[in-house]
Design a protein that fits this description.
The protein has three helices and seven strands, in the order ββββαβααββ. By secondary structure, the chain is α+β, with helices and mostly antiparallel strands. The protein has a seven-stranded mixed β-sheet, with helices on one face.
């Protein structure tokens, strides 16, 4: 049974909970027509890092995880209105920006019409991770 908290957020026993940290963090929370996603990283369903040392492979896996969370709320990449990339090496990202943006365009099915933020952080949840993708969607 889906319940609403005092903010009107939709929550249920398994709502928006997937991946390695599903017992700790909701992957997505819906409030009205707004869906906020927790940052998605390059881990598979077994919790293993995908693409260690390769930011392009990590970006693809992170986007795959974003799609999975969106799907739990009957949403798609077209629903995203805001996107944030948290990276551990912004110089590496900028040196590889063209192939990374090509992956992004491929995943969105064309040039995405979303706001985008890129920020460098000192580290992510696992030391092998190079990028985390956090999104906000409108349903």
């Amino acid at each position: 049974m889906i319940q609403k908290d005092h903010f009107g957020a939709s929550r249920g026993p398994n709502a928006g909970r997937i991946g390695r940290f599903k017992d700790l963090i909701a992957s997505g929370v819906r409030v009205g027509d707004l869906l906020t996603l927790s940052g998605q990283v390059s881990v598979n369903n077994d919790g293993d890092v995908v693409g260690s040392g390769d930011i392009g492979l990590q970006l693809r896996q992170a986007y795959s995880n974003v799609r999975d969370v969106l799907g739990q709320f009957s949403a798609s990449m077209d629903s995203i209105v805001d996107e944030m990339w948290f990276v551990t090496d912004i110089k590496n990202v900028m040196e590889n920006i063209e192939p990374l943006l090509a992956i992004r365009e491929e995943v969105f099915g064309g040039p995405p019409e979303v706001t985008q933020t890129l920020a460098q952080v000192s580290g992510l949840v696992m030391p092998e991770l190079l990028i985390e993708v956090k999104c906000i969607a409108r349903l």
